[in-house]
Design brief:
alpha/beta, Rossmann fold, Alpha-Beta Plaits, 2 domains, six-stranded parallel sheet, five-stranded antiparallel sheet, 5 helices, 11 strands, NAD, transport, K_uptake_TrkA, Trk_Ktr_HKT_K-transport
Length: 224
Amino acid sequence: MRVVIAGAGSVGRSIARELLGHGHEVTLIDRQPSAMRVSQVAEADWLLADACELPTLRQVKTEECDVVVAATGDDKANLVISLLAKTEFGVPRTVARVNNPKNEWMFDEAWGVDVAVSTPRIMTAMVEEAVTVGDLVRIFTFHQSRADILELTLPDDSPLAGVRVGQIEWPTDTVLACIVRDARPIAPSPDDTLEGRDELLFVTARESDEAALEQLLTHGPATS
């Protein structure tokens, strides 16, 4: 896979090292000479230029890329890079870094963004996930499909503890994707039984009723 990463700061370099370690071809672009720390990711191709400019993207043959990652520290630049990659070069997949969570609403298909990654939001979700039991936490949002990944640690006193997965009627557009028990992921089958302190991961549509899901998991099915 061929990947262009715009932004050669610590985030961009870390992504590049991971991709190179998995055998992918990586080009790093940055307009700041101070970011040209070539020795730290020597296996990558490097270019000192502004990735917001079309000649730069043509120079690195963006039209031949599988993925463009906009990982600069400037949200405006990341949006421009994503839009150019998608509209001018037809890149199949764009991934954009969101620096300010207040700007996250703009990082969608209208700006050519397939996947938006908000580091502050992810860190917040990880903190909440670590300290809460019985609270539904949004871990990640797929901006292209509008699907969410939600997590909840099942309380010991949940009415669903001891109930088989196949007996549970989940809310509409909600899928139980994984059970994590004792640090071991389990692909849930209808015969698996939920246990207190299970970490449950759900994939839901944007229109799904999160309140109903949390109610079901912590208090059981609503009674009419």
